Structure formats: C-alpha cells, structure tokens
Amino acid sequence: MAQFLKWISLKQPEKERILGLETQAEYRQRWISIRVLYFTGYLMFLAFGIVATGIWPYLKSLEPSVSKVFLAYVFAVPPLGQLIFSPFIGWWTNKLSSIRVPILLLSTIFTIGNVLYAVLGEFEDHREYILLLSRALVGVGTSAVTICRAYISAATRVSERTKTISYMALAQSLGLMVGPIFQSAFAELGENGFSFLGWFQVNMYTVAGWICAILGLINMVLLMPSIFVDSPIAVKEAMKSQGAATAKETWKSVQLQYFSITTMVVAFSLLMFAYVGYQTLLSPVALDQFGWTNEESLFYLGILMTAGALISCVLFLLLDPLCKRFGETNVLVYGAMFALFLSQLLMIPVGTQTISESVDSVNGTIGCPVSQEWCQSIPPVSIAQFTVSYTLLCVSFSIGTTLSQAVFSKLLGPRPQGTWMALLTCAGSAARIVGPASVTVYVILGTYWTFGASAVLSGLIFLWMWVYRNSLSPTQPAPVEAAEELKVLNV
User: Fold this and answer.
1) How confident is the model over 113-134, as pLDDT tens digits?
2) 228: closest CA among 94, 110, 99, 417?
3) At how many degrees (to 10) do helices 68-95 and 55-62 cross?
4) Distance CA 28, CA 342 (A)
5) Residue 200: DSSP 8-state
6) Residue 448's closest CA among 357, 371, 359, 375?
7) 19 and 481 in contact (C-beta within 8 Å)?
8) Which H or E run includes 202?
9) Which of 61, 152, 283, 338 could form a disulfide with 56 if both were Cys (CB 3.0 to 4.6 A apart)?
C-alpha cells in the first residue's frame, strides 16, 4: 500500500533531489507526462483487444460470403499502416522539440478510424473494404507507440528505464485485458442492439468502435500543454555523468553494439509474429476444433484473453525485481523465448481421433468446414492444450516485448531514439503483417504445419539467444550516482 501511495504521490525522493537534475516541480511534471503516455499505450492496445474476438463474427454479419483468408488481411492492415508511417513519424519526432503535434495528429487519425468501424452498417456496399480502411486508419494512429517508446527513453534515467517500460507494457496489457471484458459484457446487446438517437446502430460489435473513439478524444485532451510537458532528462543525466558540454558529445561517446541491437530486433519481431498470428487464429481454431457457436466463441475467448492479460499484469509488476535478481538477459532468454517455444510446441495435436470424428457439424455451420480437407486426417487440439499454450504465450509476450524494448533502448544510449524506435516498430509491424498469414497456412495445411513451423522457428531463435546471451547486456557510461560519489571523495 505504501508503495502504491508513493507511486501516485509523485513526490521526488531525496536521492533523486540531491542529483540536481530537476526540481520537485519538474520531477512531478515529468511523471505526469509519462503517465499520459501510459494512457496512450493503454488505448492503442485496447483498440486491438476490444475487437480481437469480435471482428470475425462482425465481418461475417456484414458480409456472410467473406472467407477466413480475408480475416488475415483485416489483421494485417493495422501493422501495415504502422510500417509505412512509423519511419516518417520517428524521423519527424527527432526534428521537433516536443512530441505533442505528431502524437495529436495520430490520435485524431486513430479516432476517425474507430468511428468508421462503428458505422460500417450504415454503408450499403463494399463493407469489407471499408472495414479494411477503418483498420488501416487505426493502424496509422497506433504509430503513436513509436513516439511513446522514444519519449520514455528520453524522459527516464537509466535506472528508471526498465520499470517505466514495464509500466507502459502493463498499461498496454490492461488494454488487452479490458478490451475482451467490454466485448463480453456488451455481448448481451446482440447483433440487433439499439439505435442511438435514430442515427447509428449500437450493437455488440459497433460498441467497440464507439468506446475507442471516445477515449481517443480524451487522449487528445490529456496531450494539451497544460497537462503534457516534454522532459528530456536522459540527456541531462548522461551529460552530468560524463562531464560533457553538449548532448551530442554524450551519445557519440556510446558505441553502438550492432549485433546485440539486431538480436533485440529479431526477438521483438518473433514475439510479435507469434502473438498476432495466434490472436488471429483464436476464433477460427475455437470454432473449428471445439464446435463452438459465434456467441460461445466470443464469450469463452473473452474470458481466456482476460485471464491471460491478468497474468501479464502480475508479470509486469514482478519484472523489475526479477531482473535485479536474475539479470535482464536471463529473464528474457528463459522467461520469454523458451516459454514461446513451449507454447507453440504444445499446440501440435496428438491422438488418433480426427477433428471430423470428434466435433459434430450441424448443417455445415458448426465445426470444421468440409473445405478444410485436413480435418479428415488430423486430430483436434484439446481445450487443455489450447489454454496452457495461450497462457505460456502471454507469459512470453509480456516478458519478451518489455525486456527487448528496455535492452534495445539502453543499447542505444542517450542519443535521440525516434528513428531507432521507428525501426523497432517497423520490425514488429512487419512481423504482425506476416503473422496473420498463419490463417492461410491453417486453412490450407492445418495445425501440424501451422504450429510445427512456428515451434521450429521459435526454438532456433531461443538457441541463438542462449548461445550469445552474455553479449546482450548493454554497456552504459557511469551513472550519475557514481559520478556524485567520486566528486564527494575528491573534495
């Protein structure tokens, strides 16, 4: 309780004050601004979590003839928007003294995309393509994640970095957790729902767009100058510890470790690839393998995703002490990459009874469709396998994405990180574009190939990182505390 009160009080600790890097007022403003970006991160992931289980039945209700392959396009469009716009956003952020203008612009685009998602039923034709457009706009808006990562790297001291990134990841995970809760809670509205003031239809699908749009407007208010103020303390810390006269001197003194940087990018990309691919497959696998209806799928998957997000939240809170006890690299390699390998391995089906024999099809609408011929020869994935595998995936994703970002940021040092963080975002976006293609592999070849190939890939990356784990620790200049102690000794 005392730790929580300390967290919300924003009172500058005495050990922070004596460093002389900022006043109490500056310290308080810095952490208010960081927490505004926590809300931004929460919102960007809420927009994904709130539609993850509903977007497929929503699409089917709008266009009954649409195929599962098109679902892969729907999930791939948002990261494509990120991939295209993040480099420009990162470059632009480096050129500005404040991140306010680009992040406000992206929040506006994000809000428009969600409104469009909510009013799809008002269009007469080509609804599936308008859905693609709405998700593309949301994807462009979520390029704000690049700005958030770069800002946290600039607005935190090295000793604060891992914990702050963990809290950002916690905020994002809360978005994933609350999203399915909203989707499940509003499932009672049904597909008919109600008409809002006679203008728009609000049902269990469109409510997701309206919630995100309203929160997008709140996010823009929080970014106003009276609330959000840029605080580049990382450069101040580096300048003081090195006795440098300019910011450029500090970051030029830190040599880039390209091998380690590349490893972090690969790890981050693989985690995104596996997680988004799995999320894309959640509904199709549940409907095919377990014979659930759309309503059952929406309800049970919402519970599963919420439980996974709760586990992630606990991990984020424990991550800083775990890293201090075992080291960031060890927690990343074993807690993230090995857990990812196990999660994919567990989804390989076992048994002799085929899916078609174990799941009854009712008029061809429930269970594995006859067009997927592999259902006649491959055993089903059990609910236990599915649950344990998804839990391990959540553990892996939570630990891995947080620590890969933290280590990546520390490897870069105090240099401007907008463009570099755009590189990390682009790598993750590219992986998220390819990830939904697992639906195509699943539809054509089945679960053996889908999860077998993913298990092999994640296993190889785990071995790579295990072999080179000692080279992944960032080399940092002496921290300010050490410099202050030396100054005292010399007096």
Assistant:
1) 999 998 887 787 788 889 999 9
2) 99
3) 120
4) 43
5) E
6) 375
7) yes
8) strand 200-202
9) 283
Are 176 and 291 in contact, with CB atoms under 8 Å apart? Answer: no
Is residue 107 within 8 Å of residue 447, measured between CB atoms?
A: no
pLDDT digits (tens, 9 = 90+) for 353-377: 777 666 554 444 467 777 788 888 8
DSSP 178: H
Q: What's the half-sphere exposure (Cβ side, CA atoms, 13 Å) at 84? A: 12
Cα 175-177-178 angle, rounded to 5 deg: 70
The set of long-range contacts for 56-65, using a CB threshold of 8 Å and a minimum separation of 24, is: 56/283, 56/284, 57/205, 57/283, 57/294, 57/297, 57/298, 58/120, 58/205, 59/128, 59/131, 60/294, 61/191, 61/205, 62/120, 62/121, 62/127, 62/128, 62/131, 63/127, 63/128
Taking only the tens place, the pLDDT of each residue in 159-178 is 788 888 888 888 887 787 77
Give the integer Cα–Cα distance in Å for 251 and 415. 5
For every residue of 355-381, DSSP letters joined together read: HHHHS--STTSSSS-TT-GGGGTSPPP
pLDDT tens readout for residues 181-195: 777 777 767 767 677
